[in-house]
Design a protein that fits this description.
alpha/beta; 6-stranded parallel sheet; 6-stranded antiparallel sheet; 524 residues
Length: 524
Protein backbone atom coordinates (compact mmCIF):
# COMPACT_ATOMS: atom_id res chain seq x y z
CA UNK A 1 0.00 0.00 0.00
CA UNK A 2 1.12 3.55 -0.72
CA UNK A 3 0.60 4.85 2.82
CA UNK A 4 1.45 8.48 1.98
CA UNK A 5 -1.24 8.53 -0.70
CA UNK A 6 -3.68 6.77 1.61
CA UNK A 7 -2.97 9.24 4.43
CA UNK A 8 -3.53 12.14 2.05
CA UNK A 9 -6.95 10.77 1.17
CA UNK A 10 -7.83 10.39 4.86
CA UNK A 11 -6.81 13.92 5.95
CA UNK A 12 -10.25 15.47 5.51
CA UNK A 13 -11.77 12.96 7.93
CA UNK A 14 -8.81 13.12 10.34
CA UNK A 15 -9.27 16.88 10.71
CA UNK A 16 -12.43 16.13 12.72
CA UNK A 17 -10.30 14.57 15.50
CA UNK A 18 -9.31 16.96 18.29
CA UNK A 19 -5.73 18.14 18.16
CA UNK A 20 -5.23 18.07 14.40
CA UNK A 21 -2.15 20.33 14.05
CA UNK A 22 -1.86 23.70 12.35
CA UNK A 23 -0.08 23.56 9.02
CA UNK A 24 -0.46 22.97 5.32
CA UNK A 25 -1.50 19.48 4.25
CA UNK A 26 1.66 19.02 2.18
CA UNK A 27 3.86 19.88 5.17
CA UNK A 28 1.99 17.46 7.43
CA UNK A 29 2.33 14.72 4.80
CA UNK A 30 6.01 15.51 4.22
CA UNK A 31 6.72 15.17 7.95
CA UNK A 32 4.79 11.90 8.34
CA UNK A 33 6.16 8.38 7.89
CA UNK A 34 2.96 6.31 7.79
CA UNK A 35 1.80 3.89 8.96
CA UNK A 36 3.94 4.09 12.12
CA UNK A 37 4.32 7.87 12.42
CA UNK A 38 1.95 10.61 11.36
CA UNK A 39 2.20 14.34 12.06
CA UNK A 40 -1.59 14.28 12.50
CA UNK A 41 -4.05 11.79 14.10
CA UNK A 42 -2.84 8.34 13.05
CA UNK A 43 -5.57 6.35 11.22
CA UNK A 44 -3.58 3.11 11.42
CA UNK A 45 -3.65 2.64 15.20
CA UNK A 46 -6.68 0.32 15.07
CA UNK A 47 -4.80 -1.91 12.61
CA UNK A 48 -1.77 -1.84 14.93
CA UNK A 49 -3.95 -2.91 17.88
CA UNK A 50 -5.63 -5.63 15.82
CA UNK A 51 -2.28 -6.98 14.68
CA UNK A 52 -0.45 -6.96 17.99
CA UNK A 53 -3.11 -6.80 20.71
CA UNK A 54 -5.04 -9.52 22.44
CA UNK A 55 -8.81 -9.01 22.52
CA UNK A 56 -10.28 -8.65 25.99
CA UNK A 57 -12.68 -11.40 27.05
CA UNK A 58 -14.09 -11.14 30.56
CA UNK A 59 -14.76 -14.90 30.73
CA UNK A 60 -11.23 -15.95 29.91
CA UNK A 61 -9.25 -13.01 31.28
CA UNK A 62 -6.85 -14.11 34.02
CA UNK A 63 -4.97 -10.85 34.60
CA UNK A 64 -4.22 -10.23 38.26
CA UNK A 65 -1.60 -7.76 39.40
CA UNK A 66 -0.89 -6.01 42.67
CA UNK A 67 0.21 -2.34 42.84
CA UNK A 68 3.87 -1.65 42.17
CA UNK A 69 5.70 -1.17 45.46
CA UNK A 70 9.26 0.08 45.59
CA UNK A 71 11.55 3.05 45.23
CA UNK A 72 12.59 3.99 41.70
CA UNK A 73 15.72 6.08 41.32
CA UNK A 74 17.23 6.51 37.86
CA UNK A 75 19.61 9.24 36.78
CA UNK A 76 19.50 11.30 33.61
CA UNK A 77 23.10 10.69 32.58
CA UNK A 78 22.18 8.29 29.80
CA UNK A 79 23.18 8.62 26.10
CA UNK A 80 19.64 7.85 24.95
CA UNK A 81 18.06 10.28 27.40
CA UNK A 82 20.50 13.03 26.40
CA UNK A 83 20.13 12.53 22.65
CA UNK A 84 17.44 15.23 22.44
CA UNK A 85 16.29 17.79 24.99
CA UNK A 86 12.69 18.67 25.80
CA UNK A 87 10.76 20.75 28.35
CA UNK A 88 10.45 17.82 30.74
CA UNK A 89 11.39 14.15 30.46
CA UNK A 90 11.14 11.00 32.55
CA UNK A 91 14.16 8.67 32.10
CA UNK A 92 13.11 5.57 30.19
CA UNK A 93 15.03 3.43 32.67
CA UNK A 94 12.61 4.57 35.40
CA UNK A 95 9.53 3.79 33.30
CA UNK A 96 10.82 0.27 32.59
CA UNK A 97 10.25 -0.74 36.24
CA UNK A 98 6.52 -0.04 35.93
CA UNK A 99 6.03 -1.56 32.48
CA UNK A 100 7.83 -4.72 33.50
CA UNK A 101 5.68 -5.04 36.62
CA UNK A 102 2.29 -4.39 35.03
CA UNK A 103 2.65 -6.07 31.63
CA UNK A 104 3.94 -9.13 29.80
CA UNK A 105 5.86 -9.31 26.55
CA UNK A 106 4.06 -8.13 23.41
CA UNK A 107 1.29 -6.39 25.37
CA UNK A 108 0.37 -2.81 24.39
CA UNK A 109 1.34 0.24 26.45
CA UNK A 110 -0.23 3.66 25.84
CA UNK A 111 1.08 7.13 26.68
CA UNK A 112 -1.21 9.97 25.57
CA UNK A 113 1.12 12.72 26.82
CA UNK A 114 4.17 10.99 25.40
CA UNK A 115 6.58 13.93 25.12
CA UNK A 116 9.80 12.57 23.62
CA UNK A 117 8.57 8.98 23.65
CA UNK A 118 10.51 7.64 26.63
CA UNK A 119 7.58 5.31 27.40
CA UNK A 120 8.04 3.81 23.94
CA UNK A 121 11.78 3.35 24.42
CA UNK A 122 11.17 1.62 27.74
CA UNK A 123 8.48 -0.61 26.22
CA UNK A 124 10.64 -1.58 23.25
CA UNK A 125 13.55 -2.55 25.49
CA UNK A 126 11.16 -4.94 27.25
CA UNK A 127 9.65 -6.34 24.02
CA UNK A 128 6.33 -4.56 24.52
CA UNK A 129 4.39 -2.60 21.92
CA UNK A 130 3.49 1.04 22.49
CA UNK A 131 1.13 3.72 21.22
CA UNK A 132 2.65 7.18 21.65
CA UNK A 133 0.39 10.22 21.36
CA UNK A 134 1.08 13.90 21.88
CA UNK A 135 -0.49 17.19 20.85
CA UNK A 136 2.82 18.76 19.83
CA UNK A 137 4.25 17.97 16.38
CA UNK A 138 7.81 18.49 17.65
CA UNK A 139 7.11 15.99 20.41
CA UNK A 140 5.93 13.25 18.06
CA UNK A 141 8.78 14.02 15.64
CA UNK A 142 11.32 13.55 18.45
CA UNK A 143 9.40 10.52 19.73
CA UNK A 144 9.37 8.76 16.35
CA UNK A 145 13.11 9.23 15.94
CA UNK A 146 13.78 7.97 19.47
CA UNK A 147 11.75 4.85 18.77
CA UNK A 148 13.27 4.19 15.36
CA UNK A 149 16.96 4.12 16.25
CA UNK A 150 18.43 2.46 13.19
CA UNK A 151 20.18 3.35 9.95
CA UNK A 152 23.55 4.26 11.47
CA UNK A 153 25.46 3.89 8.19
CA UNK A 154 22.90 5.90 6.22
CA UNK A 155 22.89 8.66 8.84
CA UNK A 156 26.68 8.79 9.00
CA UNK A 157 27.06 8.98 5.21
CA UNK A 158 24.34 11.63 4.89
CA UNK A 159 25.86 13.72 7.66
CA UNK A 160 29.30 13.67 6.03
CA UNK A 161 27.86 14.64 2.65
CA UNK A 162 25.72 17.51 3.92
CA UNK A 163 28.38 18.75 6.34
CA UNK A 164 30.93 19.11 3.54
CA UNK A 165 28.45 20.90 1.29
CA UNK A 166 27.37 23.44 3.92
CA UNK A 167 30.93 23.95 5.12
CA UNK A 168 32.11 24.74 1.58
CA UNK A 169 29.33 27.32 1.33
CA UNK A 170 29.37 28.93 4.77
CA UNK A 171 32.65 28.21 6.60
CA UNK A 172 33.63 31.85 5.99
CA UNK A 173 31.03 33.14 8.44
CA UNK A 174 33.01 31.70 11.38
CA UNK A 175 36.41 33.15 10.48
CA UNK A 176 38.25 35.73 12.56
CA UNK A 177 41.61 37.42 12.17
CA UNK A 178 44.19 36.08 14.61
CA UNK A 179 45.66 38.74 16.84
CA UNK A 180 49.41 38.32 16.47
CA UNK A 181 52.51 39.79 18.04
CA UNK A 182 55.40 41.20 16.06
CA UNK A 183 57.38 38.02 16.74
CA UNK A 184 54.54 35.86 15.43
CA UNK A 185 54.17 38.00 12.31
CA UNK A 186 57.55 36.77 11.13
CA UNK A 187 56.24 33.18 11.22
CA UNK A 188 52.74 33.83 9.87
CA UNK A 189 52.93 35.13 6.34
CA UNK A 190 49.61 34.45 4.63
CA UNK A 191 46.55 32.94 6.28
CA UNK A 192 46.25 34.34 9.78
CA UNK A 193 42.55 33.59 10.23
CA UNK A 194 41.22 31.25 12.91
CA UNK A 195 37.88 29.49 13.35
CA UNK A 196 35.38 31.02 15.74
CA UNK A 197 34.23 28.70 18.55
CA UNK A 198 31.76 31.19 19.96
CA UNK A 199 30.99 34.89 20.16
CA UNK A 200 29.67 36.59 23.30
CA UNK A 201 26.96 39.17 22.61
CA UNK A 202 26.09 41.66 25.34
CA UNK A 203 23.05 43.78 26.06
CA UNK A 204 23.77 47.51 25.99
CA UNK A 205 22.44 49.34 29.05
CA UNK A 206 22.25 53.01 29.95
CA UNK A 207 22.82 54.87 33.18
CA UNK A 208 19.44 55.96 34.63
CA UNK A 209 20.93 59.38 35.51
CA UNK A 210 23.21 60.53 32.70
CA UNK A 211 22.04 58.08 29.96
CA UNK A 212 25.62 56.98 29.30
CA UNK A 213 25.57 53.68 27.35
CA UNK A 214 27.71 50.71 28.39
CA UNK A 215 27.96 46.98 27.74
CA UNK A 216 26.47 44.70 30.38
CA UNK A 217 29.49 42.44 29.84
CA UNK A 218 31.60 44.97 31.74
CA UNK A 219 29.23 44.87 34.72
CA UNK A 220 29.05 41.08 34.63
CA UNK A 221 32.77 40.88 35.38
CA UNK A 222 32.23 42.54 38.78
CA UNK A 223 32.52 40.26 41.77
CA UNK A 224 29.70 42.02 43.59
CA UNK A 225 26.68 39.71 43.21
CA UNK A 226 24.32 42.69 43.26
CA UNK A 227 26.15 44.02 40.17
CA UNK A 228 26.34 47.47 41.74
CA UNK A 229 28.91 49.82 40.25
CA UNK A 230 29.89 53.42 39.66
CA UNK A 231 28.93 54.97 36.34
CA UNK A 232 32.15 55.91 34.57
CA UNK A 233 30.47 59.00 33.17
CA UNK A 234 28.53 60.66 36.02
CA UNK A 235 30.02 58.62 38.91
CA UNK A 236 26.54 57.78 40.25
CA UNK A 237 26.25 54.51 42.20
CA UNK A 238 23.79 52.29 40.32
CA UNK A 239 22.72 48.66 40.05
CA UNK A 240 22.24 46.60 36.92
CA UNK A 241 18.47 46.28 37.46
CA UNK A 242 18.17 50.06 37.53
CA UNK A 243 19.71 50.44 34.08
CA UNK A 244 17.31 50.14 31.13
CA UNK A 245 18.24 48.24 27.99
CA UNK A 246 19.13 50.44 25.06
CA UNK A 247 16.83 49.97 22.10
CA UNK A 248 17.79 50.44 18.48
CA UNK A 249 16.04 50.60 15.12
CA UNK A 250 17.32 48.14 12.48
CA UNK A 251 16.19 46.98 9.07
CA UNK A 252 14.79 43.44 9.13
CA UNK A 253 15.72 41.90 5.79
CA UNK A 254 13.18 39.09 6.21
CA UNK A 255 10.24 41.35 7.07
CA UNK A 256 11.41 44.12 4.70
CA UNK A 257 10.85 46.84 7.29
CA UNK A 258 12.44 48.74 10.17
CA UNK A 259 11.95 47.18 13.61
CA UNK A 260 12.92 48.21 17.14
CA UNK A 261 14.89 45.69 19.20
CA UNK A 262 17.15 45.53 22.24
CA UNK A 263 20.68 46.50 21.27
CA UNK A 264 23.22 43.69 21.57
CA UNK A 265 26.86 43.95 20.51
CA UNK A 266 29.69 41.39 20.22
CA UNK A 267 32.19 41.80 23.07
CA UNK A 268 34.33 38.65 23.02
CA UNK A 269 35.41 36.09 20.42
CA UNK A 270 36.76 32.67 21.37
CA UNK A 271 38.51 31.04 18.44
CA UNK A 272 40.98 28.34 17.42
CA UNK A 273 44.18 29.06 15.53
CA UNK A 274 46.85 26.45 14.80
CA UNK A 275 44.98 24.03 17.09
CA UNK A 276 45.18 26.44 20.05
CA UNK A 277 42.36 28.49 21.62
CA UNK A 278 42.53 32.25 21.90
CA UNK A 279 40.24 35.09 22.95
CA UNK A 280 40.00 38.57 21.53
CA UNK A 281 37.88 41.70 21.50
CA UNK A 282 36.12 42.04 18.13
CA UNK A 283 38.11 44.23 15.76
CA UNK A 284 37.33 46.05 12.53
CA UNK A 285 37.59 42.89 10.41
CA UNK A 286 35.02 41.16 12.64
CA UNK A 287 32.53 44.00 12.25
CA UNK A 288 33.14 44.02 8.50
CA UNK A 289 32.33 40.30 8.48
CA UNK A 290 29.10 40.89 10.41
CA UNK A 291 28.09 43.56 7.90
CA UNK A 292 28.76 41.13 5.05
CA UNK A 293 26.64 38.47 6.78
CA UNK A 294 23.78 40.94 7.26
CA UNK A 295 23.85 41.73 3.55
CA UNK A 296 23.85 38.02 2.60
CA UNK A 297 20.57 36.56 1.40
CA UNK A 298 19.88 32.89 1.97
CA UNK A 299 19.27 30.65 -1.02
CA UNK A 300 17.18 28.38 1.21
CA UNK A 301 13.86 28.46 3.02
CA UNK A 302 14.07 29.88 6.55
CA UNK A 303 11.41 29.83 9.31
CA UNK A 304 10.01 33.38 9.39
CA UNK A 305 6.86 32.94 11.48
CA UNK A 306 5.03 35.43 13.66
CA UNK A 307 4.97 34.23 17.26
CA UNK A 308 1.88 32.48 18.58
CA UNK A 309 -0.53 35.21 19.54
CA UNK A 310 -1.55 38.57 18.12
CA UNK A 311 0.14 41.81 19.14
CA UNK A 312 3.70 41.97 20.43
CA UNK A 313 3.08 40.23 23.77
CA UNK A 314 2.70 36.83 22.14
CA UNK A 315 2.16 34.49 25.10
CA UNK A 316 2.43 33.78 28.82
CA UNK A 317 6.19 33.27 28.63
CA UNK A 318 6.67 36.60 26.82
CA UNK A 319 8.65 39.09 28.89
CA UNK A 320 8.60 42.78 27.95
CA UNK A 321 12.26 43.26 28.88
CA UNK A 322 14.32 40.65 27.09
CA UNK A 323 11.71 39.81 24.40
CA UNK A 324 11.26 43.40 23.25
CA UNK A 325 11.04 43.45 19.44
CA UNK A 326 11.22 39.65 19.15
CA UNK A 327 7.97 39.16 17.27
CA UNK A 328 9.00 36.39 14.85
CA UNK A 329 10.83 33.08 15.11
CA UNK A 330 13.95 34.26 13.26
CA UNK A 331 14.58 36.94 15.88
CA UNK A 332 15.80 34.20 18.23
CA UNK A 333 18.83 33.51 15.99
CA UNK A 334 21.83 35.53 14.92
CA UNK A 335 21.84 36.01 11.15
CA UNK A 336 25.01 33.93 10.93
CA UNK A 337 23.57 30.87 12.63
CA UNK A 338 20.24 31.20 10.86
CA UNK A 339 21.96 31.04 7.46
CA UNK A 340 23.94 27.93 8.38
CA UNK A 341 20.99 26.13 9.98
CA UNK A 342 18.84 26.88 6.95
CA UNK A 343 21.43 25.35 4.63
CA UNK A 344 21.67 22.18 6.73
CA UNK A 345 17.90 21.85 6.92
CA UNK A 346 17.38 22.35 3.19
CA UNK A 347 20.08 19.94 2.05
CA UNK A 348 18.73 16.81 3.73
CA UNK A 349 15.54 14.81 3.87
CA UNK A 350 17.11 12.28 6.26
CA UNK A 351 14.96 12.08 9.40
CA UNK A 352 17.85 11.32 11.73
CA UNK A 353 19.87 14.29 10.48
CA UNK A 354 16.88 16.62 10.87
CA UNK A 355 16.46 15.15 14.37
CA UNK A 356 20.11 15.96 15.08
CA UNK A 357 19.52 19.52 13.89
CA UNK A 358 16.45 20.05 16.11
CA UNK A 359 18.43 18.58 19.02
CA UNK A 360 20.97 21.43 18.85
CA UNK A 361 18.54 24.29 18.16
CA UNK A 362 18.50 25.54 21.75
CA UNK A 363 22.30 25.55 21.84
CA UNK A 364 22.74 27.66 18.71
CA UNK A 365 20.04 30.27 19.20
CA UNK A 366 19.77 33.16 21.64
CA UNK A 367 18.56 30.94 24.46
CA UNK A 368 22.18 29.89 24.97
CA UNK A 369 23.48 32.03 27.81
CA UNK A 370 27.18 32.79 28.21
CA UNK A 371 26.75 32.27 31.95
CA UNK A 372 26.01 28.56 31.52
CA UNK A 373 23.01 26.27 31.32
CA UNK A 374 23.41 24.50 27.98
CA UNK A 375 20.44 25.26 25.77
CA UNK A 376 18.85 27.65 28.24
CA UNK A 377 16.23 27.00 30.88
CA UNK A 378 13.69 24.32 29.84
CA UNK A 379 10.11 25.32 29.16
CA UNK A 380 10.78 29.01 28.54
CA UNK A 381 12.26 31.23 25.81
CA UNK A 382 14.55 33.22 28.09
CA UNK A 383 17.18 35.40 26.41
CA UNK A 384 20.01 36.39 28.74
CA UNK A 385 21.86 39.70 28.82
CA UNK A 386 24.94 37.76 27.67
CA UNK A 387 24.30 35.39 24.78
CA UNK A 388 26.81 32.82 23.58
CA UNK A 389 26.61 32.44 19.81
CA UNK A 390 28.09 29.00 19.16
CA UNK A 391 29.57 27.70 15.93
CA UNK A 392 26.84 25.53 14.35
CA UNK A 393 29.39 23.30 12.60
CA UNK A 394 31.13 22.43 15.88
CA UNK A 395 27.92 21.79 17.83
CA UNK A 396 26.28 19.69 15.10
CA UNK A 397 29.41 17.60 14.50
CA UNK A 398 29.67 16.71 18.20
CA UNK A 399 25.96 15.85 18.31
CA UNK A 400 26.15 13.70 15.17
CA UNK A 401 29.04 11.66 16.57
CA UNK A 402 27.10 11.08 19.79
CA UNK A 403 23.99 10.00 17.87
CA UNK A 404 26.03 7.56 15.78
CA UNK A 405 27.19 6.02 19.05
CA UNK A 406 23.63 5.87 20.42
CA UNK A 407 22.32 4.19 17.27
CA UNK A 408 25.25 1.74 17.27
CA UNK A 409 24.62 0.68 20.86
CA UNK A 410 20.82 0.49 20.63
CA UNK A 411 19.59 -3.00 19.84
CA UNK A 412 15.81 -2.92 20.33
CA UNK A 413 13.58 -2.92 17.28
CA UNK A 414 10.83 -0.38 16.72
CA UNK A 415 7.67 -1.55 18.51
CA UNK A 416 5.82 1.78 18.48
CA UNK A 417 3.18 3.69 16.55
CA UNK A 418 3.14 7.48 16.91
CA UNK A 419 0.22 9.90 16.50
CA UNK A 420 -0.10 13.71 16.68
CA UNK A 421 -3.44 14.51 18.31
CA UNK A 422 -5.17 15.33 21.57
CA UNK A 423 -5.62 12.65 24.19
CA UNK A 424 -9.08 14.15 24.80
CA UNK A 425 -10.20 12.39 21.60
CA UNK A 426 -8.84 8.87 21.08
CA UNK A 427 -11.58 7.85 18.68
CA UNK A 428 -8.97 6.08 16.55
CA UNK A 429 -8.34 3.59 19.39
CA UNK A 430 -10.99 0.89 20.03
CA UNK A 431 -12.52 0.27 23.48
CA UNK A 432 -10.82 -2.09 25.97
CA UNK A 433 -7.68 -2.68 23.92
CA UNK A 434 -4.82 -1.22 25.98
CA UNK A 435 -2.97 -3.37 28.53
CA UNK A 436 -1.30 -0.58 30.52
CA UNK A 437 -0.98 3.21 30.54
CA UNK A 438 2.01 5.19 31.76
CA UNK A 439 1.42 8.91 31.45
CA UNK A 440 2.93 12.24 32.45
CA UNK A 441 0.17 14.88 32.01
CA UNK A 442 0.88 18.63 31.73
CA UNK A 443 1.74 20.31 35.03
CA UNK A 444 -1.01 22.96 35.09
CA UNK A 445 0.61 26.39 34.87
CA UNK A 446 4.21 25.17 35.21
CA UNK A 447 5.06 24.81 31.51
CA UNK A 448 3.52 26.55 28.49
CA UNK A 449 4.28 23.73 26.05
CA UNK A 450 3.03 25.14 22.74
CA UNK A 451 4.75 28.47 23.36
CA UNK A 452 8.04 26.86 24.37
CA UNK A 453 7.88 24.52 21.35
CA UNK A 454 7.23 27.25 18.80
CA UNK A 455 10.85 27.70 17.68
CA UNK A 456 11.25 23.95 17.08
CA UNK A 457 7.94 23.65 15.26
CA UNK A 458 8.71 26.63 13.01
CA UNK A 459 11.35 24.43 11.35
CA UNK A 460 8.85 21.59 10.91
CA UNK A 461 6.25 24.01 9.44
CA UNK A 462 3.65 22.17 11.56
CA UNK A 463 2.39 23.68 14.83
CA UNK A 464 0.54 22.60 17.96
CA UNK A 465 -3.22 23.10 17.87
CA UNK A 466 -3.53 24.52 21.37
CA UNK A 467 -7.31 24.56 21.78
CA UNK A 468 -7.15 21.24 23.63
CA UNK A 469 -3.81 21.92 25.30
CA UNK A 470 -4.35 21.02 28.97
CA UNK A 471 -2.67 23.94 30.70
CA UNK A 472 -3.56 27.05 32.69
CA UNK A 473 -2.70 29.98 30.44
CA UNK A 474 -3.81 33.61 30.45
CA UNK A 475 -3.07 34.18 26.76
CA UNK A 476 -5.29 31.22 25.85
CA UNK A 477 -7.84 32.34 28.47
CA UNK A 478 -7.62 28.99 30.23
CA UNK A 479 -8.31 28.91 33.94
CA UNK A 480 -8.21 26.11 36.50
CA UNK A 481 -11.69 24.93 35.48
CA UNK A 482 -10.57 24.65 31.83
CA UNK A 483 -7.55 22.62 32.88
CA UNK A 484 -9.87 20.40 34.93
CA UNK A 485 -12.23 19.91 31.98
CA UNK A 486 -9.41 18.92 29.61
CA UNK A 487 -7.69 16.57 32.06
CA UNK A 488 -11.05 14.95 32.85
CA UNK A 489 -11.70 14.44 29.12
CA UNK A 490 -8.28 12.83 28.76
CA UNK A 491 -8.83 10.46 31.68
CA UNK A 492 -12.27 9.49 30.34
CA UNK A 493 -10.63 8.41 27.11
CA UNK A 494 -7.92 6.56 29.03
CA UNK A 495 -10.63 4.70 30.95
CA UNK A 496 -12.47 3.81 27.76
CA UNK A 497 -9.49 2.30 25.93
CA UNK A 498 -7.88 0.58 28.94
CA UNK A 499 -8.87 -3.03 29.48
CA UNK A 500 -10.88 -3.66 32.67
CA UNK A 501 -8.84 -4.45 35.79
CA UNK A 502 -5.69 -3.00 34.19
CA UNK A 503 -3.48 -0.27 35.60
CA UNK A 504 -2.57 3.30 34.82
CA UNK A 505 0.46 5.03 36.34
CA UNK A 506 0.21 8.83 36.47
CA UNK A 507 3.36 10.84 37.07
CA UNK A 508 2.67 14.43 38.16
CA UNK A 509 4.57 17.33 39.67
CA UNK A 510 3.19 20.65 40.88
CA UNK A 511 3.46 22.64 44.09
CA UNK A 512 -0.14 23.89 43.86
CA UNK A 513 -2.66 21.82 45.84
CA UNK A 514 -5.47 23.05 43.57
CA UNK A 515 -3.84 21.40 40.56
CA UNK A 516 -3.23 18.19 42.46
CA UNK A 517 -6.93 18.19 43.30
CA UNK A 518 -7.75 18.46 39.59
CA UNK A 519 -5.75 15.30 38.90
CA UNK A 520 -7.34 13.39 41.79
CA UNK A 521 -10.90 14.49 41.00
CA UNK A 522 -10.44 13.65 37.33
CA UNK A 523 -9.25 10.15 38.22
CA UNK A 524 -12.31 9.60 40.42
Amino acid sequence: MDYKKDLAEKLAELKKIEGFPKGEDEDILALSQPPFYTACPNPYIADFVKMYGKQYDELTDTYRNEPFVGDVSEGKNNPIYNAHSYHTKVPHAAIKHYIEHYTSENEIVLDGFSGTGMTGVAASELNRKSILIDLAPISTFISWNYNCLNGRNEFSAEFERVFKEVQSEYSWVYKTKHTITQKQSQLIKNDNYGDINYVVWSDVLSCPYCKHEFEYYLVDQLKDETKSFECISCKAHVKKDECPRVQVSVFDQFLSKEININKQVPVLINYTFNKKRFEKVPDESDFNLLNKIEDTRSAYWLPIYKMLFKDDAWGDIYRTGYHFGMTHSHHFYTKRNLLVLGAFWAKTSNYKLKWAITSIMNYVNKRQSYSGGGGGMPGVLFVASLVQEKNVFDVLKRKALKLIGVIKNTHFKNESIVSTQSVTDLSNIPNDTIDYIFTDPPFGDNIMYSEASFLWESWLKVFTSNQSEAIINNSQRKKLEDYHRLILSAFKEYHRVLKPKRWITIEFHNSQSSEWNVIQESIL
